Amino acid sequence: MAIPTSRIRNFCIVAHIDHGKSTLADRLLELTHTVEARAMRAQYLDRMELERERGITIKAQAVRLLHDGYELNLIDTPGHVDFTYEVSRSLAACEGAILLVDAAQGLEAQTLANYHLARDAGLVIIPVLNKIDLPAAEPARRREELAALVGEPPERVLAVSAKTGEGVEELVRAVIDRIPAPEGHADAPLRALIFDSAFDPYRGVITYLRVREGTLPSYARIRMLATGVASDAEEVGVMAPEATPVEALGPGEVGYLVTGLKDVHLAKVGDTITLDGSTVEPLPGYREPKPMVWCGLFPAEGGDYPALREALDRLRLSDAALVYEPEVSQALGFGFRVGFLGLLHMEIVRERLEREFGLELIATAPNVEFHVERAGRAIVVRNPAEFPPGGDHGRVEEPVVFATIITPSTFLGAVLDLCQERRGELVDMTYLTPERVEVHYVLPLAEIVFDFFDQLKSRTRGYASLDYEPWGYQEADLVRVDVLLHGEPVDAFSSVVHRERAYRYGRQMTERLKELIPRQLFDVAVQAAIGSRIIARETIKAKRKDVLAKCYGGDITRKRKLLETQKRGKERLRRVGKVDVPQEAFIEALRVDRKGRPA
Amino acid sequence: MIAVGLYVHVPFCRTRCGYCDFNAYAGLDDLAPRYVRALAAEASLVAPAWGDARFTTVFVGGGTPTTLPPTSLERLLAELRAILPIDDDAEVTIEANPETVDEGSLGRLRAAGYRRLSLGAQSFDRVVLARLERGHDPDAVGRAVRAARRAGFDNVNLDLIYGVDGEGLASWRETLRATIALGPEHVSAYALTIEPATPLGRQVADGLRPAPDPDVQADMYEQACELLGAAGYRHYEVSNWARPGFECRHNLGYWRRHPYLGLGAGAHSARGPARWWNLRPPRAYLASVEAGSPPVGGAEELTSEQIELEERFLRLRTREGVAPDGLDPAVVDGLVDAGLLERAPAGLIPTERGLLLVNELVLALVPQRPRAPATAG
Ligand SMILES: Nc1nc2c(ncn2[C@@H]2O[C@H](COP(=O)(O)OP(=O)(O)O)[C@@H](O)[C@H]2O)c(=O)[nH]1
Ligand code: SF4
Prior knowledge:
The complex is a heterodimer of chains A (about 600) and B (about 375). Chain A is an alpha+beta fold. Chain A contains 14 helices and 35 strands. An eight-stranded antiparallel β-sheet of chain A has the order 13-12-18-9-10-17-14-15. In chain A, strand 7, helix 5 and strand 8 (about 160) form a beta-alpha-beta unit. In chain A, helix 7 crosses helix 8 (about 345-355). The radius of gyration of chain A is 28 Å and the shape is globular. In chain B, a hairpin with a 2-residue loop joins strand 9 (about 235) and strand 10. The termini of chain B are far apart. Chain B has 14 helices and 16 strands. With about 375 residues, chain B is of the alpha/beta class. Classes of the chains: A alpha+beta (about 600), B alpha/beta (about 375). The interface between A and B is large, with 41 and 53 residues. The structure holds guanosine-5'-diphosphate and iron/sulfur cluster. The site of guanosine-5'-diphosphate has 15 residues of chain A, from helix 1. Iron/sulfur cluster (SF4) binds near residues 22 and 97 of chain B.
């Protein structure tokens, strides 16, 4: 090992999307000659999907930069609230973080939340203003805001332009000077932290890790502490930025490990790797991935159920957070109840299922997990259809989150109103500057799942930002609202909502369905009910006319083609009792705001 | 010998109506003499292929056939009779617009062998006629019918259209009363259909005019059923009523899937599993016929499944009944209970309500693939 531990620096960049993280990474690669300027593609780190001869795909989760005899490891962090835990593990692999803020935009909630995570993890923070070349930049004001946040004098805040490269050299200097070198003995028993893992179809599970102490040699027999699984270190290497095998990784070093394991669940983010045979304490902070949001996924074509199962099984190999169990819906047939880390995760999984596996899906509205007391027993409800109907239950608890919202103070009223409407409890409020306020609320997760982010954006003209973290469970007055078609409940439309919102939900659903369900040969009642009490009702009037007025010799071919099309459409209808409901009506009626993502 | 219907298309009109998507043209009258010659020439071209046929009906439609002078129409029928084996007692219909005929011309047509006259009356409401851009006023219809009677026509049809923007139930009722008062043997009443590729269709698409309300049209349909039924007309097809014995045999041929030969621009022909159609633009049609080649513009060969579907939906438009064999009894029961089908000695017959929902009947009675949810595999 050419470089001693004292000359290693492990760091990450905490930034809001579009504040310039990728551009800055490009500059760092350039400056450290890690990538020759000529070979430099814009935003190298983001796009790099290296296909090595052996077919191995390695993400640039961590890239090694060499500068002035120092080894600088830049570790990537996912930038979304769904992945807070993953972020925390990436941070745990670092000693320092660059807090990068767009000098024109200022701090955003996401950055702030990740900043707090970094700080709590004991990282040294280097505050940096970016885009100072922009005319709209307000370096002086932002500098104060940032300095106040990190509690340092304003002159400690660096100013760069990732675009022009201005100030980047000073930044690298600060990384070396301010961030401490890692600690850890080379001859201690091995403890390495997995901060990401991926599945490669050719090589099996590849983990990205940070050696805390000890040494990880190639070809060693290793073991993961949480799962207890042992495996061979088929290859150990670093990203420089291409995957480069090395003989061993020493204390403080960051790299990758090819395990040959066939399932990503065996090498989980946050787990500790040691050498097989040695007994060590696991590194702190490991957590099982916990789904926060659930929804039913059903194949649009009933015959695709086996294909959906196979696709989920395949996805699971590379997505340790994905959980699912079979579910049967009267309306939608056979499918799965699937758990996700959050809305973005849900969106990603759905998109992959549709794109990579060519499946057409019907997804029910997402819901959270409820704790319900019934007949003296506590049950966990992940599917609204399993929630006791008509108030036949004891105490009910729902998950809440601790939400951080940063808004221009002019929109403070609007933000407070929204949170209040969504059953939020104000925790506190801090003026970052006279113009910007940081607000903390405890909010039911269910309210956030439901178009909260869009509302926040639209009521603050896009200026407010949101971040949240799980905050346990809280009692709530919840009821199940059912939707009935022609007297027949449609399980896929059942929803658990706060009692005060039940009426509105019922009215919305019945009105929506009235628009979406085509007229039938008889009047169809569309009702919403709590237990046996009807709270909303619409009627779809019977269809009276469906015929072509004229059908003579020249019309017959056209008419037949029309009927053939109608016939194919009819094959895609689902039957609820006596009522034919087109696929599209389910999809439309169940569509929640698909941009409910706080990033 | 097989019984065949002969359709002859005349694509000329005085003006073009905004709702119409027929193969019809205003301002092409110059082509008329050539066109009539071409019809005979086409008949000669295709006659050998129909050597085993007996033409039991002739229908000269359009367009507006009576934009041609009586001499041309006389010669046309005579020539067709000379070329094709048309039965002596064949039903021979000609379509006419009220403003294009008078007693003199009708007398000549009757004498030439046209036995059935179909008049495009459309409405007796001035406002509705104007909306339809028809060139006649309500009185013209009565005059034309009386002229037809004097000319010897004892089989007259009036075509009506209902559901035009601005036409209320009361107006439609008046049109029905006026129609009945004229005592035609046959009435065709069509719900206005918006065809996308027409000026009206574009206006509706652009939101400049409202699309017909299907419920209002259904009310109008029920009124037609009621008034025409009470006046002794038998409702024998979705849009057709006749005094017993005066059903249009030519059109019944279509709904029974009998073979037919179409002559003229855009005319369709069908025989067994084959259907084909002529070139639509009159000039293209003329060029082809004059060059001595059949003016075919397209063709299709039906699969047995398609034939079955056609048989079903054509049959169900009429009250001739379909055999219940092979139909899902539960579905049939449901449709009977819903009042859309009735059981009769002839088989299953759509009720008047059922006729207005024929598409639904057809789809319900055509075998479906198994429905979702399917079983898990
Ligand atoms: N003017 C200017 N634009 C920048 C600077 N840094 C990044 N950008 C631009 O800001 C946008 C977002 O940058 P990117 O690096 O993709 O942000 P990321 O989402 O944080 O990775 C891109 O259009 C960049 O070109 C800078 O220093 N000055
Ligand atoms: S007269 Fe008849 S065929 Fe001619 S344009 Fe009008 S509706 Fe169409």
